[in-house]
Structure formats: C-alpha cells, structure tokens
Design goal:
By secondary structure, this protein is mainly α. The protein is built from seven helices and no strands. GO terms for molecular function: heme binding; metal ion binding; oxygen binding; oxygen carrier activity.
C-alpha cells in the first residue's frame, strides 16, 4: 500500500511521521547535492544540521508535533539571492524524493501546495506563483 492512502490520518502521519519525513529529506538533499544548478546554494553547509532543521520544518508544516522556531524564511534565504527558477528546481527535487519514498500523489500535491506560496518570500519575486 502506498504511503498516504489512509485519509483519517494527518498529512504528517501519512508521510510516515518524523522518520518518514527524515527519509524524504535525506533523499531530497542527495538530489540537491547532485544538481549543479542549485548545489552552490548549499556549499559549506553542515548537512546533518540542515537535514534535522528541514525535518522539523516539514514535520511542523504537515501537522506534526514539532514546532519550527527557526529564522523567518525571508531572513534565512535573502542573502542567497535564490531565483524563482532555482526555487522551482528545488521543489522538483522534493517532489521526486516524495515519489521515490512511495508517498501517494495526492499527498505530494498537498506538500507542494504548502510550500509553493513560500516562493515569493524566498526569492523576493512578489508575482503570483504559477502552478
């Protein structure tokens, strides 16, 4: 059975809880490291710390018990000058990591719908996001 086929569970639960999300995050950053278009944003990064931080963020965003208390997304990313195209590339890697982790398509859509509105805050592009 695909992860995500139990509608009574929260999105967090359907993703496999913290362990499932951490597994997705590991796949995701593996893809990031292999992509020369976006890997430069992650140079000189403590990946273990970043993966734990991202796991907490995604757990919080999907209804889990973790509380995200990090910097605002604007503060954390403004110095990177992320382009809208690179944001889309990164979201594509997350989508691929979710697919490879066996997450149901409807749950992938929900995760991406939670993150897509963050594009303008992370890129400074205040245009309406396209889907």
């Amino acid at each position: 059975m695909e992860k995500g086929n139990e509608p009574t569970q929260s999105l967090y639960g359907r993703l496999g809880g913290k362990n499932g999300i951490h597994s997705v995050v590991e796949r995701f950053y593996g893809k990031i490291q292999e992509d020369s278009n976006v890997s430069h944003y992650f140079r000189n990064i403590d990946y273990a710390k970043l993966m734990e931080h991202q796991t907490v963020f995604l757990s919080f965003a999907t209804g889990g018990p973790d509380y995200y208390a990090g910097k605002s997304l604007t503060q954390a990313h403004e110095h990177l000058k992320i382009t809208p195209a690179h944001f889309d590339d990164v979201l594509g890697h997350l989508s691929d990591a979710l697919i490879e982790s066996g997450v149901a398509g409807s749950d992938i859509v929900q995760v991406l719908a939670l993150l897509l509105p963050l594009k303008s805050r992370m890129t400074g592009d205040m245009k309406k996001p396209s889907v």
